[in-house]
Amino acid sequence: MTPANPYSAYRKVQAISTSDPKKLVLMLYEACLRALRKAEAAIRDGDVAAKGEGLCKAVDIITELSVSLDRNRDDEMVVFLDRLYAHLLTQLSEANLHSDAERVAHVFRWVEQLRDAWKRTVMPEAEAKAAGAARPEPSRRPAPREGYGPGEPGIGADLRRAVLGLG
Question: Across 1-133, where does the E strand assignment appear?
Answer without folding.
Answer: none
